[in-house]
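Supplementary Methods S3. Complex input for the magnesium ion-bound model.
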Amino acid sequence: MKKISFIIPCYNEEDNVIKFYNKVNDIFKDRIKDIELIFVDDGSKDNTLENIKKLYKEFKNINYISFSRNFGKEAAILAGLKESKGEYTVIIDADLQQNPKYVLEMEKILDENKEYDVVCCVQEKRKENIFKKVFKKAFYKIYKSMLKMDVMDSASDFRLMRRNVLEAIISLPETIRFSKGLFTWVGFNTYYISYKVEDRYSGKSKWSISKLFKYAFDGIVGFSDAPLFWTLKLGLFFVVIAVLGLIAILVLFIIGIKMPTISLIIICALFLLSGSTLISNGILGKYLSNAYNESKNRPSYIIKESKTNDKKD
Ligand code: UDP
Ligand code: MG
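Predicted complex, serialized as structure tokens:
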């Protein structure tokens, strides 16, 4: 059994995969037989797969899976985890933002501390645009307030786990997946270390604000029904306001005070009401659509080709 399996989700990383392998090779040069690398090509449109195949032909410890189209990083992680054969498994990005040197540190922690099952890397300050920063901060604030679980801010998917954790994660059947939530949900003792996110070696981040928004929304919907109760509370709030408003208007009318701005107030109230009704419908709709998608029971990904058998030494 290999000591460490690397799961590397790749989407349009043609200039990074070989560089990534070389870096791992440098760090683990004396122990290359101890590790296996599982590249998961998530439907890349560039030469990522071709470059992975070059590595596969050249080195014994390379495996790969290639999807029929882009299914998303979460699906790529799941596919990789299912193929992992190592005693420990690490999820790591292909773009060299997560330096493989930290894997040695994580391995040492698991080797020396039997009571821990996962080591999770937490990002130190990261160079990101201000919108993403604010968005992520706000998301974690809301997320933590809703979930009854302890979620670590800025915890990344860069983590090393024992097989018990891996088995637990792959046993979860959902197709709409949010790893940070799943890792928290399965429990186990997690050791946190901080790491410095490096610059992307080549290419661009695949996460736009709208992709992040959808991912965050799925993360909330997958783990909490609190937003459904927000809509109920919002509805109740507006009913109370409407009743109080009506009483106030009635009293003013009885005592003979004219209100020239009354129509303006009514228009504003209407906007507020229809806006909040639409938001509530949107939240309800999201739960419905996620339930609908899960009920279809489709697989998280379709494999076009793969080479995941252990090669001979
Ligand atoms: N990734 C993927 N499928 C996607 C988007 C991203 O497999 O649909 C991979 C990507 O190739 C990289 C990792 O996930 O190895 C992290 O993606 P990225 O660097 O774009 O995210 P960021 O570092 O900006 O959070
Ligand atoms: Mg990146």
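Residues 4-129+150-209+303-311 form a domain with the Spore Coat Polysaccharide Biosynthesis Protein SpsA; Chain A fold (CATH 3.90.550.10). The chain has two domains: 4-129+150-209+303-311, 226-295.
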